[in-house]
Write a structure and sequence with these properties.
heterodimer; A: 190 residues; mainly alpha; 2 domains; B: 149 residues; 6 helices; globular
Chain lengths: 190, 149
């Protein structure tokens, strides 16, 4: 049993479990699923009163901060009790070939060390991936009023047009990063 | 704060924490946190992420339908949950979404996975989290000048 759980979980097991977070939060906490609002709560707690957007009682977001902390703890349990962080992710042959073409050949772990490590932070590619990538995720999620959980899952579950527009934007941006920005960043170094 | 409110807040926090732990485990075990999986998704070269998101949405829809049918969680009749305002061109949804997608494509992690990756011990994601917070703060500063509806 434990050995099975320590393997990567197939999408048809993990997907429904992610879907069940929607009723779990509604029934247990009485709240709509969404992660990125917790970023807003943290900003409001740290720099209060400066801007209208952050001028609210962030304590109303206690449940979101607890939920976020839970995700951190869950991540830790997933790579200790339930497996390791060093397993190779079994992506498709086509993606392996494309990434090799960009110079990413070491696929140990959940992400490439060439881009996402303290060492990489000093290179242009690593800095853009980590710092600019993180910045755009935060800025974009709040401008769009939600991220993958709030729009792609909660918003589509409740069949809302704004969320469909946001998800189309997610893919438009992701395609630009994948096919234009990353090759420009990584291609030049080869 | 009086005594009747205090346990309720504590209960809310414990429950949110518990659901978060399960969600964090699933995010990592499903490899949704993996930069490699996100690349596979944006290159349309594998079904994994689409199956994951698709089955999550289907399960969520079914859950909401059942909750409505039995009036659970205050979802009687046509109560709308997590309602997003829709009017005009809804510019902030697709413009903000595109900015978010640019970041997701680079970092390979959206907000949930950023938290989960920190938990896995990938400490460089603390930098990504700090950058995301600076991003939110910058949005707060520029918000009056950005197009919304």
């Amino acid at each position: 049993m434990l050995e099975t759980l320590q393997q990567p979980w197939p999408w048809y097991v993990a997907g429904p479990l992610i879907g069940l977070v929607v009723p779990a939060l509604l029934l247990l906490v009485g709240k709509a699923f969404g992660v990125s609002t917790s970023f807003r709560d943290i900003c409001a707690a740290v720099t209060p009163g400066r801007f209208e957007y952050l001028n609210y009682d962030w304590r109303s977001g206690w449940w979101r901060l607890a939920f976020a902390l839970g995700i951190v703890v869950g991540g830790a349990l997933a790579v200790t009790a339930l497996g390791s962080a060093n397993a190779v992710v079994d992506i498709s042959e086509a993606t392996r070939a494309d990434l090799a073409g960009l110079g990413i050949t070491d696929r140990t772990g959940l992400f490439p060390e060439e881009l996402l490590s303290w060492r990489a932070l000093g290179s242009i590619g690593g800095f853009v991936t980590i710092v600019l990538g993180g910045f755009l995720v935060g800025f974009g999620a709040r401008w769009a009023g939600g991220c993958t959980s709030g729009h792609a899952i909660m918003g589509l579950v409740t069949r809302q047009l704004p969320s469909l527009l946001a998800v189309l934007g997610f893919f438009a941006g992701g395609l630009i990063s994948t096919f234009i920005i990353l090759p420009a960043l990584l291609g030049g170094g080869r | 704060m009086n005594d009747t409110n205090a346990p309720s807040l504590r209960r809310t926090i414990v429950r949110s924490l518990a659901v978060g732990i399960v969600f964090g485990i699933v995010l990592v075990k499903s490899e949704a946190v993996s930069w490699f999986r996100i690349q596979e998704m944006f290159r349309f070269q594998g079904f994994h992420m689409f199956g994951l998101l698709g089955s999550a949405i289907a399960t969520g829809m079914l859950s909401i339908a059942v909750m409505r049918r039995f009036g659970l969680g205050g979802l009687g009749g046509d109560v709308q949950v997590g309602k997003k305002e829709s009017r005009g061109l809804n510019r902030h949804y697709w413009m903000g979404g595109t900015v978010f997608g640019l970041g997701w494509g680079l970092l390979g992690a959206c907000p949930g996975p950023i938290y989960a990756m920190i938990g896995t011990g990938a400490s460089v994601f603390l930098v990504a989290l700090a950058s995301a917070l600076v991003g939110v703060w910058t949005y707060a500063a520029l918000r009056p000048r950005l197009p919304h509806f």
